[in-house]
Sequence to fold (262 residues):
Amino acid sequence: MYNIKEKFGSTALITGASSGIGKAYAEALAAEGVNLIIVARRENILNEIAEDLRTRYDIQIQVIAQDLVAHDAADIIFDRANSKVDILVNNAGYGSYGRFDDLDITSETDMVDLNCRQVVSLTHRFLPAMKNNKRGAIICLSSVVGSMPTPYMATYSATKAFNRYFAESLSGELRSQGVSVQAVCPGDTLSDFRSSASFDKKMPISQRTPQDVVRSSLSTLGGRATVTDGIINKIATKQPRFIPTRWLIAINEIIWRPKGTG
Ligand SMILES: NC(=O)c1ccc[n+]([C@@H]2O[C@H](COP(=O)([O-])OP(=O)(O)OC[C@H]3O[C@@H](n4cnc5c(N)ncnc54)[C@H](OP(=O)(O)O)[C@@H]3O)[C@@H](O)[C@H]2O)c1
Fold:
């Protein structure tokens, strides 16, 4: 449907492939005939996904169970990967919600390691082969909240701004070398994200599905450096262009304020 294999190559490595958006990338790329290396901590779930995709598609799948917070995770994954990687999907990530000083500091700093440091390490490891082959793709999961200051999600929104600027900057460096880089900005999307972030607030717009996000990403890969999934989310990410930052902070503080606080 997207000619991913022809344009970018035959093997994709997806982090966070055991659920939500990462699992949807695995499904969509498998349907394109792309061989997969799927990474997350829950090996049993990765094995079930691999088994299911192998029976439905004629592809090879390698499972790597790895905690990406570990400092040497990128080296371990690079060493264990059975083939070169043409498409790297930096998807694994989590968020947190609440007053910053109430949040667990280990979880906050682990989040920076997972959402940012590991993205840099994995990209640095797998990019040289893509450059040598003069083709490849790197996808980094940002978020609508990576486009603007978001009180009560301070660390998470900063990590997602990092993902966006990292991908956009790299896309400029690599455009002439055949490697496409894309920042993907989903809004509220149906997955385990809300429960792992303890985020129970109802947002004024309807949730998108992981499949919606992946469709937005893969249908535009190789084009614009940034893709926002869904029309309302697209409008939301444009707000910083029109609304002064101090107003945006004040408005978002009201929108995102946890229930029962004032
Ligand atoms: N859902 C949303 O509303 C939304 C919106 C904007 C952006 N995003 C971004 O989309 C990406 C995917 O999120 P999702 O919605 O699909 O959430 P999800 O369903 O919670 O999936 C998160 C994935 O990351 C993996 N992961 C978490 N911690 C890990 C660790 N320490 N080491 C290795 N893997 C780890 C999880 O696997 P294991 O638990 O098996 O390790 C899981 O596969 C994230 O980067 C998130 O920031 C999500």
Observations:
- The chain has one domain: 4-256.
